[in-house]
Specification:
This protein has 19 helices and 31 strands. By secondary structure, it is of the alpha/beta class.
């Protein structure tokens, strides 16, 4: 086979999606277009989105619990939990991702364990080395598989045991922090809401009943990369932990006895820069519980001027203004007590308007002095507003750049742990986006300067605003190690179709519409899995004019993920359908059961090719390939059908089909699911036309470059005119009379048995 290859470089905004769905993407493209797919460079590039902290609280036992939208392959916790199977074969999902990122030693050590100890029982967990992963240990935990229609009684006990086994290993090996995914909620089919509830309740129960003398970690992190799971874990934490925990913001908090504090801000992203953790959030600056809150005020010491300053004054009380007027000024800085605020001190900084002399240097110095003063005074957390974006005249982009750069410079020499918060007013979306962009810049800066513990970049629900798209830049100008999708197809057209599908998917506008009659073949369990995605996106199924359709709508990254999940299900439904039909064909034609299907490409100088060219050219089409189909099993069934209908006369007719169904027609013949016309007005059967012109009209294509026609022999037999919603070829006036097909005029024939038509040639055409 002369394979045609294409390399498609993966744009930064696509990296996380391709990484998460690497296995599924390969299977989908191979199933649709018979193209081999390899994805290179994935394990060498960090994720491009920021880690997203959704919930953070401290249990009465002192253990901190948090919920993150993040990538476990990038997690730097002391230990990371892998959702494993009983044989520790890491061949799909999270297990595959961790195994690939960790290198071959992950699977080797797992195989060695199975060889020595046998399978890992459901509910058990083992501790192994983490290979090349940034964590130290990998905990392989086997959660329960949930059969269809289970009441979850047994499975809940098994999941509780799984979490108990993980936490026992954490205690036994003195693990300081552990990242736990939603075990069993994926391919093991544990319903996501119940899974989240069970995991959170078990962690709470475990540490409530741990004796004070027993070891415990500093933090349990619930880490998942997909939005529906993250939201369910966050919901479960709010449900089961809020009445017994202290909500924590940043490094500092008030007395641990305070209850029912408000939940953490919904938009919150963090970047690690050595000892400094920089967090961007939407909130009110005066509500922060960091050690230090920074205020920007006027040179005449009037705290009532300016939105930020007046908000801080109002909440702190009049005592603040009294102290502030007489406090000592050091450079651009005045330090006062916090009074009624929840911080320890307030740092008041004086900045001049952009039009003033050395205004930019003044702004830089103000940020720098606050950071240094906090470090010198042994404060471990500080919160900044967006200084200078109001009456001082700086643009949002200028302020975001200056403040971010100063934090970066500070991080290179900071010897102590420090949490820095950039707090943006919750309705100021433009400023938030400007700072969000700068946090991306910090990724590159940290990497270039090799800062230890540089930015962890994880999957984010809100970070990608525009629809992702493929970068098709000439590979001569790209790094050979850059992430890329490599396509190898049996023909140029196959590769082109696969490439087009990828582009259409990743560049698709919102919403995305899927039209595929195999939607009707999705199982109850698959529909349940789709329902679990509906917290993040909207999925609507409908049937119109013979077509099963699905509309997916929501935020672009989650829509792309959902579409890939749907396409994976459709490919599986298609495979099961093919298997069932092959079994039926084999049963009916035992003599030819093992006869292979063949597709022979006709030489372009042969009569098979040249004899058809003019016919298609008249319709604005250029034939690029003619394949002769040989399927002895289908030929035998076709002959049997001739005898049954007592009809030896056949008619050469055409059907226009999608590229992804060419190989199916060759294997199992024609079916309603494969090529429903744009409007099945003559009945719910299998349509054929007598000419290419009529086929183009009956199957109106979108903007496809290539069209695929099947030339078939059709047994028309005894016919009557068809009508809409006709299921069998019957006549309402004479219900006892049997017919073999229905017509839609002189050029359209509709049959209702797949064995009544035999595929002879598949003709690939290119639009002129």
């Amino acid at each position: 086979m002369d394979e045609c290859r294409k390399e498609i470089y993966i744009d930064e905004t696509l990296f996380d999606i391709v990484k998460d769905f690497e296995l599924e993407l390969c299977e989908i493209i191979h199933s649709k277009y018979e193209c081999k797919v390899s994805i290179k460079g994935i394990s060498h590039k960090p994720s491009s989105a920021l880690p997203d902290l959704r919930f953070e609280a401290k249990l009465d036992s002192g253990v901190r619990v948090s919920v993150w939208k993040a990538d476990l392959t990038q997690a730097k916790d002391y230990a990371v939990v892998n959702a494993a199977n009983e044989n520790l074969k890491h061949s799909g999902g999270l297990a595959l991702a961790l195994s690939k990122a960790g290198g071959p030693s992950i699977q080797k050590e797992s195989d060695d364990y199975i060889r020595r100890h046998g399978r890992v029982k459901t509910g058990d967990a083992i501790l192994c080395r983490a290979g090349l992963l940034p964590c130290k240990w990998l905990i392989h935990a086997v959660g329960p598989r949930v059969p269809l229609h289970s009441n979850l009684v047994k499975e809940e006990q098994q999941l509780e045991k799984t979490i108990m086994s993980i936490l026992n290993l954490v205690k036994e090996h003195d693990v300081n922090s552990v990242a736990i995914p939603a075990i069993s909620s994926g391919i093991f089919n544990y319903p996501l809401p119940q899974c989240a509830d069970t995991i959170v309740k078990m962690v709470k129960y475990y540490y409530q009943n741990l004796s004070p003398r027993e070891k415990r970690p500093s933090e349990i992190r619930f880490v998942n990369h997909d939005e529906p799971t993250v939201r369910e874990m966050e919901r479960a934490c709010h449900t089961f932990l809020s009445s017994h925990t202290t909500q924590v913001y940043g490094a500092a908090g008030p007395s641990p006895t305070k209850r029912n504090a408000p939940s953490a801000p919904t938009s919150k992203y963090s970047v690690e820069l050595g000892n400094v953790v920089l967090t961007l959030m939407k909130d009110a600056i005066e509500d922060q519980q960091t050690d230090v809150i920074v205020n920007t005020t006027s040179m005449d010491r009037d705290l009532s001027l300016g939105v930020i300053s007046s908000a801080i004054l109002q909440k702190a009380g009049p005592e603040l203004e009294k102290e502030f007027r007489t406090a000592h000024q050091n450079g651009n800085l005045i330090i006062t007590n916090a009074f009624r605020l929840k911080c320890k001190e307030i740092y008041h900084t004086f900045c001049i308007g952009k039009w003033g002399h050395k205004a930019t240097e003044n702004l830089r110095d103000s940020v720098k002095q606050c950071l240094i003063a906090a470090d010198v005074n042994n404060h471990r957390s500080i919160a900044f507003p967006a200084i200078g974006t109001g009456k001082l005249g700086f643009t949002k982009e200028e302020v975001a750049s200056i403040m971010s750069e100063e934090v970066f410079e500070f991080s290179k020499r900071c010897q102590n742990k420090m949490k820095v918060h950039f707090v943006i007013f919750k309705y100021d979306e433009d400023t938030f986006k400007a700072f969000e962009k700068e946090l991306r810049v910090l990724q590159t800066m940290a990497s270039d300067h090799d800062i230890q513990g540089s930015m962890e970049l994880e999957d984010s629900f809100e970070m990608i605003n525009a629809s992702p798209q493929l970068s098709l830049t000439d590979h001569m100008h790209r790094d050979e190690e850059a992430p890329k999708i490599c396509l190898a197809g049996s023909s140029h057209e196959a590769r082109e179709e696969a490439e087009k599908w990828l582009n259409d998917l990743f560049k698709a506008s919102n919403p995305v519409n899927i039209q595929n009659n195999f939607i009707q073949h999705l199982t109850y369990k698959q529909h349940q899995q789709l329902s679990s995605l509906k917290n993040a996106i909207s999925i609507e199924e409908f049937f119109t004019k013979g077509h099963a359709c699905m509309t997916v709508e929501g935020f672009s990254p989650d829509v792309v993920r959902a579409v890939l999940r749907v396409e994976e299900m459709l490919c599986k439904a298609q495979e099961e359908f093919i298997s069932e039909q092959l079994s039926e064909i084999g049963t009916m034609t035992m003599t030819f059961k093992n006869m292979p299907c063949e597709r022979r490409v006709a030489d372009k100088s042969s009569p098979e090719f040249t004899g058809r060219s003019q016919h298609f050219q008249n319709q604005g089409l250029r034939i690029v390939k003619v394949e002769a189909v040989s399927n002895k099993s289908l030929e035998n069934l076709f002959d049997l059908k001739k005898q049954q209908l007592n009809c030896n006369q056949t008619r050469k007719m055409y059907q226009c089909i999608p590229a992804q169904f060419c190989h199916i027609v060759s294997q199992i013949g024609f079916h309603v699911e494969l090529a429903p016309p744009e409007d099945p007005q003559h009945g719910e059967g299998i349509y054929f036309t007598s000419s290419v012109k009529q086929a183009k009209q009956l199957w109106r294509q979108r903007s496809d470059r290539y069209l695929y026609f099947v030339e078939a022999e059709v047994l028309e037999g005894k016919s009557i005119p068809g009508h809409r919603d006709l299921i069998l070829p019957t006549d309402g006036k004479s219900p006892g009379t049997k017919y073999d097909s229905v017509t839609g005029g002189a050029h359209v024939c509709v049959v209702f048995s797949s064995y009544q038509a035999l595929p002879r040639y598949i003709i690939t055409c290119e639009k002129r």
